[in-house]
Specification:
single chain, SMP-30/Gluconolactonase/LRE-like region domain-containing protein, four-stranded antiparallel β-sheet, about 300 residues, signal, 1 helix, mainly beta
Length: about 300
């Protein structure tokens, strides 16, 4: 999440000030594509099985497809009556759920919902449909696949996690926790969220914290959150089946092992989200500066 031009600039300066120097343990970062103009502020990212990259934007209610071999980008989805799109998750083969709503200098509560972008018929243009717009939504941003028909969505202003059925539109509040509540100068708390290995991993962006929380089969919490760190501004992430998290943070992409060891593995400054490519050895990063980057998974 990058809130506006002023905040984005401040975060960029903070990232430069706190970044650790590139060393031999860090992976080489390659720029795959650079968005300029509008849309610009890449916010969510997913990679199709054919290697094309689906990107959403905090400054536009749209999704674009980047083709790395040709270095071309094409708009493939417009989310009606929105100005902002956020996290993306694959919910079925070549079918993606995307969060979108209205944010333009200020948030519009009740404008947020989940859309499906469906490439499964094999055509060049996906079918885009609204799953559900939720009037109780505060400000949705993070989204993760949970079950075959269900996603979990982080509500940054309410400090809660919603559960949404992507086939029926049925929804409910699954989790409320004090660690998800807004903190600091901006009224926004939980940001990035990922489900893996029976737990959700999530950031509280302006509290500079990263947590892990065990959940049950209904998405309800089964214990208390474990704080992994409390000193870095961070956004969205990828979590491997082994429980290793790669988090877009102020000091670069942070690798967090299952036992809580943290290291900077790639020097990406304005990262907002991280995802794994189909080769299982490459991570892709969306950036609020418009850059789409990649680097090899550290061995």
């Amino acid at each position: 999440m990058r809130i506006d031009t002023t905040v984005s600039s401040l975060l960029s300066l903070f990232a430069i000030a706190t970044a650790t120097p590139l060393d031999k343990r860090q992976s080489t970062v390659t720029q795959v594509y650079k968005f300029t103009g509008s849309p610009l502020k890449a916010e969510g990212i997913a990679v199709r099985s054919n290697g094309q990259i689906l990107v959403s934007f905090f400054d536009k209610g749209e999704a674009w497809l980047v083709d790395p071999p040709t270095k071309k980008a094409t708009k493939v989805a417009t989310f009606t009556d929105t100005t902002c799109s956020a996290a993306i998750a694959e919910v079925a083969p070549d079918v993606f759920a995307v969060v979108a709503g209205k944010y333009s200098n200020s948030n519009t509560p009740g404008s947020w919902g989940v859309w499906k972008v469906d490439f499964s018929d094999g055509g060049a243009t996906p079918k885009t449909t609204l799953v559900k717009k939720v009037p109780e939504s505060g400000m949705w941003n993070g989204l993760t696949a949970f079950k075959n028909d269900t996603v979990l969505v982080g509500d940054a202003t309410k400090g809660a996690v919603f559960k949404v059925n992507v086939n029926t539109g049925e929804y409910s509040v699954a989790i409320e926790d004090s660690t998800m509540k807004p903190s600091g100068g901006m009224p926004m708390g939980i940001d990035g969220i990922r489900y893996a290995n029976g737990s959700i991993y999530y950031t509280n962006i302006f509290a500079n914290k990263f947590y892990k929380l065990a959940v049950d089969a209904d998405g309800k919490k089964t214990g208390s959150p474990t704080q992994i760190w409390g000193n870095q501004m961070a956004d969205d992430m990828y979590v491997s089946p082994e429980g290793v998290a790669y988090v877009a943070a102020s000091s670069g992409i942070q690798r967090v092992t299952a036992d809580g060891k943290v290291s900077t593995v790639a020097s990406v400054r304005s990262g907002t989200a991280v995802t794994l490519g189909p080769d299982k050895s490459t991570l892709f990063v969306a950036g609020s500066d418009g850059a789409i980057s990649s680097f090899k998974v550290p061995t």
